[in-house]
Amino acid sequence: MAIADKQGFQPQQIICTGDVVGYCAKPEEVVQAIRDWGIHCIAGNVELQLRDGEKDCGCDFNNGSRCDIFSRQWYPYAQSVLSKEAIEWMHALPHHISFQYAGLRARVVHGSVDHVSGYVFHSTPWSEKNEQLQKGEADLIMGGHCGLPFNHIQEGKYWLNPGVIGMPANDATTRVWYMTLNDQKGFHFTHHSFNYDHGAAAQQMREKHLPEAYALTLETGLWDNCEILPPQETEVQGVRIDF
Fold first, then answer.
1. pLDDT 10s per residue in the chain (243 long)?
2. CA-CA distance, 210 to 70, in Å (whole number)?
3. Residue 102 is part of a domain; what is its CATH number?
4. Is 178 a domain residue?
5. Which of 5, 157, 163, 208 is packed most tightly, with the most Cβ within 10 A?
């Protein structure tokens, strides 16, 4: 919020790709901050599961995996502290946002067009991305969910992932990520990272008895495991990301 304010972005110019709630110690406070900020936001799989009263986060983790086990700690905690007003806000969130920008048909999704928790990475074949672009009737898709910032461009079409503000990108730095778009003289995008008080966030997680492994991720910049990652992304764990 401070960065957006400093750079002169208004709330109506800002988009969140979902999963506002996840992992960390202050889900209610984060929901209220995002709601009161007034930005555009879609529902991630976590919001869909919480608003429907489901028993898990719906992240499509393998049953019995470390991520699955950790989710059985943080997800019930989030359920226990979220207010009725927070859940009502989640019910009002759209699944996708579509708009025209710089002559492109843009669509914002969480995972993929037809699967909210679908994992799309840089290494995901372009043929699969192009199929999703066609289903979404889009020239530009902005997605989230996978946790890693990337861009993939072919045939005048774009798949962009701004990365995550709430979690580092598995590159052994504690930076977190976002993206800006510009429509002056065509379409342009820029990846950005910033540092924040990750130590305080990790300490708050420990005070709430949330997964220690995820608190360590905030402090080390390394994910506890690479279970969800394809081989190409797994091979570069700990390698600093530069664009």
1. 999 999 999 999 999 999 999 888 999 999 999 999 999 999 999 999 999 998 888 777 777 777 777 788 888 899 999 999 999 999 999 999 999 999 999 999 999 999 999 999 999 999 999 999 999 999 999 999 999 999 999 999 999 999 999 999 999 999 999 999 999 999 999 999 999 999 999 999 999 999 999 999 999 999 999 999 999 999 999 999 999
2. 8
3. 3.60.21.10
4. yes
5. 163
d(CA 136, CA 120): 15
The number of distinct structural domains making up the chain is 1
Q: Tell me the C-alpha to C-alpha distance, in Å, between residue 166 and each of 26, 111, 163, 224, 237.
A: 12, 17, 9, 15, 18
Number of helices (H), then strands (E), in the chain: 9, 9
Please check whether residue 91 lies inside any domain of the structure.
yes
Please indicate, yes or no, if residue 1 is contained in any of the structural domains.
Answer: no
**Residue 51 domain-assigned (yes or no):** yes
| Domain containing residue 101 | 11-235
Do 143 and 17 contact (CB within 8 A), yes or no?
yes
Helix (H, G, I), strand (E, B) or coil at 135: helix
